[in-house]
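job 3f2a | input accepted
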Amino acid sequence: MIEIDGLGKDFYRSGESVVHAIRSIDLKVARGEFLVLLGPSGSGKTTLLRCVAGLTVPDRGELVLDGVPVYSAAKNILVPPESRRLGMVFQSYAIWPHMTVFDNVALPLSHGKPKMSASEIAERVRWALALVGLKGYERRPAPLLSGGQQQRVALARAVATQPSILLMDEPLSNLDARLREEVRKEIKDLVSQLGVTVLYVTHDQTEAMELADRVAVIHDGSVLQVGSPEELYRSPGDPRVAQFFGSMNWINGVLDGAGVIQTSMGPLVVEGHKVSSAGSAVVLAARPEDIELSVGTLEDAKGDNRFTGRIVSNVFLGDHRIVTVAVKDQKLLVNSPSFAVFQGDVCVRILKERLSVFARSKLNEAPEISKDDQSISGYNTASSRPNLLDEI
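job 3f2a | predicted structure (392 res):
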C-alpha cells in the first residue's frame, strides 16, 4: 500500500553543514495496516510523514502509494498532495475558527476532485461526524469546541473524503492524559471499522503499543527497527530501541570464556543471545518487571543470577511499586506488586531468559555509562537517571 524506497530529505542552514532530516529510509506498509513511526523529537518521523503527504518534497528515493508512483527522483515524478487520495490529521488539528463544524468537515469535499453536489457533501459530512461521535454538532461554531471535540472534527474531516490512506501527526499531544486514553480507543475502533491504512507519528511509547500493528522506531533520520510492539519490547535489536521502547536497567559487563558475563554485581547468565567472543565488553539490559525480589539472603536461594541487595527506596504508585535496590555498586529499579513492601536486605533474581545483550560498540555514540548512571532511565522519580537517548 505504501512503499518507501531510499527516501531522503536534507535541510540546509545558513553557514552550517547539511542536516539529514531523513537519510535513506526503506519502509513498506501493507493494506489495512496501522504502522506507527515512533521516535524522539527531531528524529525525522514528521518529515517522513510530510513527504508521504506531499507537503514536503524529498531529495532522493521513490514513493509509491496504492501501486501508483507519487514521487521519484530518478524518473522526475511528483504528484501533488490533492491527487494522492490521502487524509491527514495535524498535530494542531488545523480547525478554521471562523467556520462551523459542518464547514470545517465539508472543506476538502467542496474544494476537492471529483466535484460533489451539495446534497452529497451534506450526507458525507453527517456520516463522518457520526463516526466520531459528533452527530448533531454540524452548526456548532469552531471556537466553542473543546480540545477533544476539535480533535474529532479534524479526524472527521480526514475520513470524510474516504481516503485509502490516513496520515496522523501526533494528533493526541494536545490532550490531557485521561482524554488521550479515551481518544486512543476511539481511533483504534474507527480505523478497524473503516479498514483504512494508517501511518501514525508519535513519541509516546504507550500510544504506539496500544494502536500499532507494527512500529518503526526512527532515530537520527534512520529506521532502527521495525516490528510488532511485543517484538520491539522483548527483542530489541539496538540499545536505542530498548531504551526508547520502555524503561530499562543498564549493566556493564565483560564476556568470559565460559559464555558468562562478569559484572560488578557478579556473574550473569543469559539465554538465547549470541554475543561476541571472550573478553568482549558488553552492556546488558533488564526490564524492571524482569527482576524479582524476595525476603531473605543469597544463602536462602538457589539458581543463576541471584544476588543479595539492599532496598534504597520504595515508591507506591497504586497498582505497583517502583523499588530501588542496590546490589554492591549497581542500582536497579524493580516493578513490584503494590502489596509487597520490602525493607533492608532482599534476594534479587534477574531472569536470564529476559536479558538483552548488546556489544559496547553499539553505544559508541553515547557517553560512558558510569556506575551512577547505569541504572534505569525512563521513570520520573527522584532516583531516575538521564535518558540515554537524550545524549545520543
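job 3f2a | Residues 14 and 153 are 39 Å apart (CA to CA).
job 3f2a | closed
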